[in-house]
Amino acid sequence: QVQLVESGGGLVQAGGSLRLSCAASGRTLSSYAMGWFRQAPGKEREFVGAISWSGSRTYYADSAKGRFSISRDNAKNTVYLQMNSLKPEDTAVYYCAATSYYPSDSLEKYRYWGQGTQVTVSS
């Protein structure tokens, strides 16, 4: 079993930055690819980005490219989402998730999920 806890969310002005963290307990994250997803009110949960188990490969949704960056520190059992140039449309609950498969943009590939952290971007 893997337990994931997100932190770092909050209220930020448009154009600002936030760094989200996802800390794991239970088994270490070294065997898992990790993904970040978000869900805004009234919308489906959508893919933000993913990172391979080693951290050597990253993947991003079009909405995140050039602004967001995913990294991981397996020794600390933590994955990060650096968000820059934030826009009001980035407002959502952000979730991290772990998969024993290859990195994917599909919800069904992820077995473990955190409870989410709220990110609100004011205009």
Q: Could you give the count of β-strands?
A: 11
Query: How much helical structure, as a percent, in the residues?
Result: under 10%
Distance between the termini: 40 Å
What is the overall shape?
globular
Structural class: mainly beta
Major sheet attributes: 7 strands, mixed
Low-confidence stretches: none
Tally of individual helices = 0
Beta-strand portion reads over 45%
- Rg, nearest Å: 13 Å
* H/E element order: EEEEEEEEEEE
Mean of pLDDT: 95
List keywords for this structure.
four-stranded antiparallel sheet
Describe this structure as you would to a colleague:
With 123 residues, the chain is mainly beta. It contains no helices and 11 strands. The strands form 2 sheets. Strands 2, 4, 5, 6, 9, 10 and 11 form a 7-stranded mixed beta sheet that branches. A 4-stranded antiparallel beta sheet has the order 1-3-8-7, with no helix packed on it.
Question: Topology, pairings included?
Answer:
Blueprint: E1 2-7, E2 10-13, E3 18-26, E4 33-39, E5 46-51, E6 58-60, E7 68-73, E8 78-83, E9 92-99, E10 112-113, E11 117-122
Parallel strand pairs: 2-11
Antiparallel strand pairs: 1-3, 3-8, 4-5, 4-9, 5-6, 7-8, 9-10, 9-11
What is the gist of this entry?
With about 120 residues, this protein is mainly beta.
